[in-house]
Description:
By secondary structure, the chain is mostly beta strands. It has strands at about 5-10, 15-20, 25-30, 35-40, 50, 55-60, 65-70, 75-80, 90, 95-100, 105-110, 115-120, 125-130, 140, 145-150, 160, 165, 170, 175-180, 185-190, 195-200, 205.
Amino acid sequence: DIKINRMKKINNSHFVSVANDSTGKVWNMNLVNTACDLTGHIHQVISALEILSDNRIATGSWDSRIRIYSSSCILQADFIAHVGYVYDILQLQDGNLASCSWDGIKIWNKNSFALVRILHHGNARAIIEIEQLLNGLIVSVSSDGSLRFWDTSVVSSLREMNFYTWTDGIYFSPHMTAMKVSRNKKLLALALSNFTICIVDLVEEHVIR
């Protein structure tokens, strides 16, 4: 069965969805039907979907590629972005794109989509989601149970918060399954695989509850 994995609004009349059949669709909300289809990926698009400031659409797939489409579904760029799955895509405040996977966070030029910089996280776990804060720092969550803060001009993370627990003499690291940053960019909610939700103060960088 086809499963829609993520949706985002393009403008007041259109939104886009991506699915596990490797395709996406642009929908007309007024007519309640599809305006056009996004095709070309050879693997599913899970969560890597971003609407750019000029209403172009960026998708990242488990086929390791990022594809850029116009709002009318015309392909404008297509490139291999990571060694593994593309987990998330984000447009930064300067207009450049950021994407993440097992091999870290990569920054791409907003015009040419050439690689600008790689931010290395130094472990074998995937970075699964990224968000930019008002101060310009990128916050990322990884499948190893860590939350990291990045300066896009520095190749390694500035600070790290771990959510390890000590049980029967060993460390247990719950997988992070989702994150959501508040609209004012001051709070972060983390959903963990041990059925807990953590609220993080992004200003003071500590767990509230």
